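call fold(seq) -> C-alpha cells
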Amino acid sequence: MLTATLRLYKNAYTGLSLHTWYLSAVMLINRSGTMVIPFMTIYCTQALHFSLTQAGFVMGLFGFGAIVGAFIGGRITDKFGFYPQQVAALLLGGIMFIITGYLHTYLSLCIGTFILSVCNESFRPANATAVAFYSSPENVTRSFSLNRLAINLGWAVGGALGGFLASANYHLLFWVDGCTNIAAAFLLLKLLPYVKSGSRNNNTKEPIILKPAYRDKVYLVFIALTILLAYSFFHIFTILPVFYKSEWHFNEQFIGILMALNGVIIVLIEMILVYSLEGTKPLITFIRAGVFLIGVAYAALNLLPPTAWTAVLSMFIITLGEIFAMPFMNSFWISRTTEANRGQYAAIYAMAWSIAQITAPIFGSQLAEDNGYNMVWWMLAAICLFTSVAFSLLGNWLQREMPG
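ret:
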C-alpha cells in the first residue's frame, strides 16, 4: 500500500519540464510572503479602527486595481512577452507593499491599495501564459497544479507566520510581503532564461488566425460563471477571518492556522488527485463538483455548532472543492487559446477573479452588517449551487457542439 502510494506521488510529478519547476520555485518564494491580503480586513478594523464597510471598500479597491492590472498585464504579455512583465510586476509590487504599510489614513490607504493591486496583479496573466508556454498539452493541468501547489505551500507558510506577526505588529506583514516579491523577481532572473515573446514559433510564415476572447461565446459564459465562483471563494480571505474573530472569537494565530490549512491540504493531495483524474472525464465535470463542495462548506457554518472543529471541517471541504475546480478551470480556458492570443484570454480570466475581489468584500461586508453573517453563508451556498448547475448546462452545450 505504501509502495503504491509513493509510486502514485512519483508519477504525479514526473514529466514536467525543468522550467515549470523553476517557475514554481519563483512562485513559492513570492507566495511565502502572502500575509497582507488575508489579514487586511482585520488590519483595517482592528489596527486602523475603520468600520467593516470601510475595510470592505479597501479590499474592493484591491479588486478594482486587479482588473486594471490584469488588463495591462495581458496587453504587455501579448506584445512584449511574459518574461519582462513578470519581473516588472514582482519588483513594483514588492516596493508598493512596503510603501502601503506606511499609509494609515483611509484616503491614503485606498489610493495605495489600488496602486499596489495594479502593480501586483499585472503578474497573473504573464505567469499563466508562462506556465502554458512551458507545458505540453498532455501535462498542462498538472503544470498549473504544480504552480498552485507552490502558491499554496507559500500560502501555508505565509498564513501561519502572518498570524503570529499580526498578533505582534501588523506593520511587519507589509515588509515581509514586499521583500518576498522582490526576492522572487531576482530568483526568476537567475533561474529562467530570457524569453522575448510568448510564441515558440516566431519565425513561422504560416498566418495565424486569431479569435478574440471577447467573441468566444462559450468562453464568455465560462467567465460569467467564474465570477460567481470567485465571488463566493474570496469570502474565505475577506469576510470569513473577521467572522471567526468577531463572532466565534478565535485569535489571530488560530485564524492564520486555518488559512494555512487550505494550503497544506492542497500540497498533500492536489497533484495526485489531478494526475488520477486528468483525462478521465470532461473538464466541466470536475469544475461543477468543486463549486458544489464550496457551497456545502459555507452551509456547514450555519448548520454545525460554532466550534474550532467546524471551522476546520469547513476549510477542508472548501479546499477539496477548490482542488476539483480550479486546476481544470485553467485547462479549460487554455484549451480555447493559441500562443498568440493567450495573453488576452489570461487577462480576461484574471479580470474575472478581480471583479470578484471587488464585489466580495464590499457586498459581503454590507450584507453581514445589515443582516448578519448567517445570511452571508446561506447566500454563498445558494450561489454555489446555482453556479454548479450552470456549469453542468455549459458542459451539455459543449457536448452538443462537438462534431460527430
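The first helix runs from residue 2 to 13.
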